[in-house]
Design brief:
Layout (H helix, E strand, L loop, with lengths): L25 H18 L7 H30 L9
Length: 89
């Protein structure tokens, strides 16, 4: 990289390289996550859901999703029909 400056006088930063789990392709992520889950089960530390826990988690997720959907709908209504500008003579 050269030390040439940009128009505003800054030296441009080196481009960032993708790294880590988030930069992997989905198949590779799935493979690694699967190994972790299998290891936890073999070790006996993995959480085992009861049907009651699963039902409660599903209910909470549904409620959160419903609230998010309602908030988005309200935001969309206000952006489509903004209040008239105030008139201050």
């Amino acid at each position: 990289m050269t030390n040439e400056k940009t128009e505003n006088g800054n030296i441009p930063a080196a481009p960032k390289k993708g790294r880590g789990f988030a930069n992997m392709d989905k198949a590779q992520q799935r493979e690694i996550a699967s190994k972790g889950g299998k290891a936890a089960h073999e070790k006996g530390v993995a959480h085992k859901w009861t049907s009651q826990e699963a039902a409660e988690a599903g209910r909470k997720g549904g409620q959160a999703s419903s609230q998010n959907r309602q908030q988005q709908a309200n935001r969309q209504k206000t952006s489509e029909n903004p209040p008239p500008p105030e008139h201050n003579p």
